[in-house]
């Protein structure tokens, strides 16, 4: 798969992670998150894979997200870093300006799995 196709695929996976109702089939999370996955949240806290799975299973599925400025960088064969901005688009209670996200994806078996994710809160300018 060429880099543009990988970028489109990873962007779609990033959006689906946020917008899917994972309670419908929680076993699918294993196809998306690597066994050694970890995250650094916009609050600076480190979250384990289990913490993130818990969030995915209990998040408000009515909230929609907008991804902008999406791009990827090939780190090495089978490793991709995604960089983008994200914002909730239909949550009137949110006062956040959104965040800048970085994810590292590895091609494992026959599909891409997220290995690492970091969010940095966007400050007002």
Please name the CATH architecture: Roll
- Quick one: biggest sheet? 6 strands, mixed
Low-confidence stretches are none
CATH topology label: Nuclear Transport Factor 2, Chain: A
Number of strands: 6
Count of the domains? 1
- Structure annotation, total helices: 3
Widest sheet, order of strands? 2-1-6-5-4-3
Instruction: State the helical fraction.
Output: 10-25%
The radius of gyration over CA amounts to 14 Å
CATH class: Alpha Beta
SSE ordering: HHEEHEEEE
Shape, please? Answer: globular
What structural class do helix, strand and pairing data support? alpha+beta
Can you characterise this structure?
Strand 3 and strand 4 (79-88) form a beta hairpin. This protein has one domain (3-121): Roll (Nuclear Transport Factor 2, Chain: A). The chain is 25% helix and 43% strand. It has 125 residues and is of the alpha+beta class. The mean pLDDT is 90. The longest helix has 17 residues, at 3-19.
């Amino acid at each position: 798969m060429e880099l543009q196709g990988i970028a489109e695929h990873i962007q779609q996976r990033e959006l689906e992670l946020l917008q899917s109702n994972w309670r419908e089939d929680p076993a699918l999370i294993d196809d998306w998150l690597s066994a050694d996955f970890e995250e650094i949240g916009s609050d600076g806290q480190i979250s384990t894979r289990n913490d993130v799975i818990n969030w995915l299973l209990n998040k408000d599925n009515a909230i929609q997200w907008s991804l902008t400025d999406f791009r990827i960088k090939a780190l090495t064969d089978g490793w991709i870093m995604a960089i983008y901005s994200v914002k909730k688009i239909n949550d009137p209670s949110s006062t956040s300006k959104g965040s800048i996200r970085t994810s590292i994806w590895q091609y494992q078996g026959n599909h891409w799995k997220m290995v690492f994710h970091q969010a940095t809160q966007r400050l007002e300018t």
